[in-house]
Amino acid sequence: MASFAFYLFALLAVAGGGLLVTLRNPVSSALAMVLSFVGLAGLFIGLNAYFVGIVQILVYAGAIMVLFIFIIMLLDLNDEKPAKFKLSTVLAGIVIPLLLLVQILGVIQSGLHGEEAEFTKIDEETMKVSAKEFPKESAIYKSLTHEKSPKLPDTNLIGHTIFKSYNFPLQVMGALLLVATIGVVVLSKRSHKKAPTDS
Amino acid sequence: MASLNEFLFVSGLLFAIGLAGVIIRRNIIVIFMCLELMLAAASLTLVAFSRFHIHNGLPDYNGQVFVFFIITVAAAEVAVGLAIIVALYRARQTINVEDLTSMRG
Predict the structure, then answer these.
(1) Minimum-distance CB partner of A94 among B18, B20, B41
(2) Chain A residues within 8 A of B37 when measuring between CB atoms
(3) What's the confidence (pLDDT) of residue A79?
(4) Can you give the pTM of this predicted structure?
(5) Domains (ranges, CATH) in chain A?
């Protein structure tokens, strides 16, 4: 059953990617991108990464896709005439990713020396054992050792890791977002000087 | 349940599709979307390794923290990139990469 979900979401992600590359209308491409990201979020949730899956949907389908559609509508690109593709670019675009894929396949085949990593289930027993690392009154401990329905406190554990081991990178990330915001405001301000013309 | 190799293969396939889009497509917005797809494919690898590297009975959450950071950087990158595209369109009235050749040597 879990395997079926994996193949469904993997197919969704790959099909979305294929449509993103092949569809000519940019709006359809943006919607295909969202399809692909929904498939990816399904894969994340199948990997017990609930927080990352939900954030993937919220940020990509909620914010980034809307931004893309907004810009496409703003620039009014719907009357784009069908572009002619050069044979050499299409050939390069097929051969180079194929080479990359063959390389990745080779690494996957050889890198683990035949022994595959096992998918170990996270069940009540293992969660009870791993809860010993955390203080008894913490939300992580309570969720891991809940009598009726012990759950993997995914969000709490990510927060625990961020604030324990990645505190400085988190603050750098905050500064990055601030700089990006200021940069966007500066970039989209219409300057009164005449823009430099091409060549 | 699917093995680690299958997740890595799906991730590599998505990355290759994104790369093909970046090379083939001429519309700069679609190229940008393909870049986003490549970033997301890389984060699938991180989440898969995080889940299959069980540490003390729990997944290795360092990988998922990296994915969180990747999503943050991607959001900032999209905002700045689209602002640049809008500025470019205002200056040149085109978003076809074949018409944007002023940096050709």
Answers:
(1) B20
(2) 17, 20, 33, 36
(3) 52
(4) 0.87
(5) 1-79 (1.20.120.1200)
